[in-house]
Design goal:
single chain; alpha/beta; Rossmann fold; Immunoglobulin-like; 2 domains; 15 strands; 25% strand; globular
Length: 351
């Protein structure tokens, strides 16, 4: 399965570009699912078709859905409630599932589980995800690494032994599997939709830094409402192909206009689902003195980086962005000896 994640600054047109990509993939005879991950219902507006939490067939080879975290929690609550009561010795009886959605990050947790289900089932050739604005989308992707970590620690207590612990372990393993898929550049691509305004370009640069920090492969930038790439934009984003989506004199709504936009964005024989840039944002290799962990960090200065190792965890701070990495078992007992930023890549030596 190919997974295409679309994000960008609010108002840049990411939902329209994601929908057009899904239409193009479907017209190329690939079973395609288009997924919306926020509550704005912008995807339904763009497709001019009502969407629910269940995939609906809109055209040959094209399905779409908007994930509803509350509905999913309501479905699972009758089975989850007794397990929580048993594990934590608290009376959850009578608690409305709506109350639980107020917990920070829980709605995102349900969205990630929905994506994981699709990846596990493998019913589609292409999964196109409208991941929302860059700030929200990158927080959602960042949760993948942290949620498994918190689940393991929350349930690693004697009172939680039993069905809930087993459930938590299964969910944690599923999230780890999903993260591995999303970090595999052959399976998943993150694409950033942007406009040529200075503020939008600055946010796009931050999005590229964040995506690289967390190990996601960005294989294209889409410059919306432009016929050609301005020289300053081309000079700034030299490492990625930049695709232009022509400005329309009306809103791009409905299958016909989305198809026209998609053909202009991905003209034949170009395949919208292709990997447009191959490479790993994160790589571990062996050197003469130990191991070398390389992480791409575009648009970053060495003074922006703080690094701290705590046992098997590496805390990497880049400006206001922070990632807590679980180091692989091969690095157990080794220490981060030094870190050097060279040509947009942070190289961390473990001895």
């Amino acid at each position: 399965m190919r997974i295409l994640l679309y994000t960008g600054k609010g108002g840049a047109g990411k939902t329209t570009i994601a929908a057009a990509t899904a239409v193009r993939c479907a017209e190329s005879h690939k079973r395609t699912l288009l997924v919306g991950t926020d509550a704005s219902q912008g995807l339904a507006d763009c497709l001019n078709s009502p969407l629910t939490d269940e995939p609906a067939e809109l055209a040959p080879n094209l399905w779409a859905q908007e994930i509803d975290p509350l509905l999913r929690l309501e479905r699972g609550w009758p089975d989850l409630e007794p397990l929580l009561c048993q594990a934590f010795g608290m009376d959850f009886e009578g608690t409305a599932s709506e109350e639980l959605t107020l917990a920070p990050g829980l709605a995102d947790f349900m969205r990630l589980l929905a994506l994981q289900e699709h990846c596990d089932q493998g019913e589609y050739d292409v999964l196109v995800v409208d991941a929302g604005s860059s700030v929200y989308a990158l927080q959602l992707l960042g949760h993948l690494e942290g949620l498994g970590w918190w689940l393991q620690r929350l349930l690693a207590r004697e009172s939680s032994a039993g069905e809930l612990a087993a459930l938590g372990a299964g969910v944690s393993a599923g999230l780890a599997k999903l993260r591995a898929m999303l970090m595999d550049s052959a399976e998943c691509s993150l694409r950033v939709v942007m406009s040529p305004e200075q503020l939008a370009l600055r946010e796009s640069k931050r999005a590229l830094t964040f995506a690289s920090l967390y190990g996601y492969n960005v294989d294209a930038l889409i410059l919306n409402r432009q016929k050609r790439v301005p020289r300053p934009v081309a000079d700034t984003f030299t490492a990625w192909p930049i695709l232009c989506a022509t400005l329309y004199d009306r809103d791009v709504v409905g299958h016909k206009l989305l198809s026209e936009l998609a053909l202009a964005l991905f003209p034949p024989p170009m395949d919208a689902a292709d990997v447009l840039v191959r490479g790993q944002a994160e790589r571990l290799s062996r050197d003469d003195e130990g191991y070398l962990l390389s992480i791409k960090l575009p648009f970053v200065h060495e003074d922006d980086i703080d690094l701290l190792q705590h046992k098997s965890e590496l805390i990497l701070q880049v400006g206001r962005m922070r990632r807590v990495m679980q180091l692989p078992p091969v690095l157990e007992g080794l220490q981060a000896a030094d870190a050097i930023l060279e040509e947009g890549t942070l190289e961390i030596h473990f001895h």
